[in-house]
TrEMBL record:
<dbReference type="InterPro" id="IPR052472">
    <property type="entry name" value="MORN3"/>
</dbReference>
<comment type="function">
    <text>Assembles a suppression complex (suppresome) by tethering SIRT1 and MDM2 to regulate composite modifications of p53/TP53. Confers both deacetylation-mediated functional inactivation, by SIRT1, and ubiquitination-dependent degradation, by MDM2, of p53/TP53, promoting a proliferative and cell survival behaviors. May play a role in the regulation of spermatogenesis.</text>
</comment>
<dbReference type="InterPro" id="IPR003409">
    <property type="entry name" value="MORN"/>
</dbReference>
<protein>
    <recommendedName>
        <fullName>MORN repeat-containing protein 3</fullName>
    </recommendedName>
</protein>
<dbReference type="Pfam" id="PF02493">
    <property type="entry name" value="MORN"/>
</dbReference>
<dbReference type="GO" id="GO:0001669">
    <property type="term" value="C:acrosomal vesicle"/>
</dbReference>
<keyword id="KW-0677">Repeat</keyword>
<keyword id="KW-0968">Cytoplasmic vesicle</keyword>
Amino acid sequence: CIKHRRTTEPLWHKWDEKAQKCGLRHTVYAVNGDQYTGEWLDNLKHGKGTQVWKRTGAIYSGDWKFGKRDGYGSYSIPDPVTKEYKKVYTGWWKNDRKCGYGETFYPGGERYEGEWNGGLRSGWGRMYYQDGSIYEGQWLEDQPGGQGMLRLPNENRYEGGWKDGMKHGPGKFFYLDKGQLFEGIWAADRPKCGILIDFGRDEAPAPTQYPIPKV
């Protein structure tokens, strides 16, 4: 007699499929103590979820795609003294890196709001520095690059080109405290050539002793 071979799948295939986390919310603890609570797809974090890293205490809550932070979410760390959570970044992610619009809070009270690409400030953004200065303009690879304005704590400001985080190219520097304006060419943060004129001298709080003669 002829014996027919079984064509049905082994039972362990079915058991394996049922064991895979998919769609529903689960809490999983890693060997190193990290913890994730959220949605899954094919055994990967996918959907809404929260990850807690045991070593640093950092926490991310937001969107995931195929095991990586992707979409909108916030990242926070605990204060070393008070242990209260401080927000570090809130915004968009792609492939586990900051990408798109987001806001970052730095130690010392500095803050950046604007565009990111590959985890670096890139595009248009505004940076609030610890000394009270504010830069608003274009960024490239985490530094001011392109066209932008830097306003100093005393209200003096520079408007013009930037490269590698330094003033570079045509630009204007408004010395509002002295009532003067320098307009010229900059290279590596230094003015190379240009013209200095009186600008709003009558309203300046500390004008120079002698006015600049008109050409």
